[in-house]
Amino acid sequence: MFENLPGFRDFPPEACARRNHLFRVFRTVARAFHFSEYDAPILEPLDLYVEKSGEEIVGQLFHFEDKGGRRVALRPELTPTLARMVAAKANALPKPIKWYNIGEHFRYERPQKGRGRSFYQFNADLLGETNLQADAELIALLVGIFETLGLSSKDFKIRLSDRTTWVLFLNNIGITEEQRPAVLDCIDKSERRKPEQTLEVLEKILPGKSEEIFSEVNKIKEINSLDSLKVRLSNCGKDGENRSDEWSSLLQSLEGHGIEDCIKIDLSIVRGLAYYTGFVYEAFEASGEGRALAGGGRYDHLVKKLSGNVDVPAAGFAIGDMTLSDCLESKGLLPNYVTAPDLYLLCGPEDKILGLPIIARCRKAGFSVSHSLKHAAFGKQFKEAGKSGARFGLILGEDELSKDEIKIKDFRSGNEKTVTQKNLIAELENFDESGGIS
Ligand code: HAM
Hints:
The protein has helices spanning 13-32, 55-59, 79-89, 132-148, 163-172, 180-190, 195-205, 210-221, 226-233, 237-256, 302-307, 321-330, 352-364, 378-388, 398-402, 424-434; strands at 36-37, 43-45, 63-65, 71-74, 97-106, 118-127, 156-162, 263-265, 279-285, 294-298, 314-320, 343-347, 369-371, 392-396, 405-410, 416-420. By secondary structure, the chain is an alpha+beta fold. An eight-stranded mixed sheet has the order 1-5-6-11-10-9-7-8. The structure holds histidyl-adenosine monophosphate (HAM).
């Protein structure tokens, strides 16, 4: 007996239907925001991720050498692929580029609740626009998806932070540009580490200064209101003032979208991925429990970094299917799985050959039709029809066959109606509207 690999999931029909429910909502809401769906390869050159994605993800790559000696990796995320695709066609693409994708991703991490080695993400990205309206549009799309799935601002919060603000604050406490990436990475991981471990890492980056910087960083992480942000930014010169205005402008736009109740300023978010340059955010259940439902932000330099010469500003986010399904499940927001066919055809085993063309006509007309695949007696077929949950039975007995008729039985009310085979579809469509046979 083989089992599936750790961190990989099977999707039997019920699980698949639940997953597809998410995918349907992703597509519907993305369309409402006028985003276009795109797709990309699952296997990429390993180098696409090294140095671009941040150490954590690179350490989690599924990678190998292919038969042609190429070093390749299963994609752990989509953003570098998207940046590569956009760089290749940047001049030909009308701006802004508003693209979304639903696809599978792979990270070799310890499987646990909400975390797998294979998972799906909905990615939405907006490229070619530096205006903060783009960031607001993306956050509104994220909220729109959660709301369409039945969640409200009481159920989830988007924790909003800003890499630019962090850079200003780190400059202010004497962190150099070279030390910055390691310090930001350490701050990101500090949420999941004991303080002693964070201090130990900081000491390696900033020998002799770790305690002082640790205490400053903790003060910054506690900032959770526009007022306290503005006070601290006012100590960062002209750049600080400008960023203060940009914070106000973004928050105003979010208010305009009517989603201010879903947003919480929270500087403890810095994001683990190395490419972010501006506003960043993560969505969590309002209780604060569990891992992130989604994460994203602005990454204005990634396209240039990957292409060498094409400069396209960008922002985006991804929602993961695992934490989101867990959250919806716990609130009873996943729809029941319905497998029942619309119709079940019953006929004498020797008459199947006359029944099959009727089944085919019904299917072409858009009905879901089932029937017994065995030579079963009528009684047995009725039992199977009942088990299937079909709303209507189509009965082809000797009487009906002799007159080119067919009997429609409403399994819910028990009522029956005999119609000509010719008129069957029209009659069924009629029932469909009125809901049954009276
Ligand atoms: P991320 O924060 O690494 O961002 O992942 C986004 C979401 O994917 C997470 O919030 C989580 O729900 C889900 N996720 C990540 N890793 C796993 C895992 N091992 N198992 C289950 N779910 C997981 C990114 O991937 C960025 N590329 C998002 C982005 C798009 N930024 C700009 N555009």
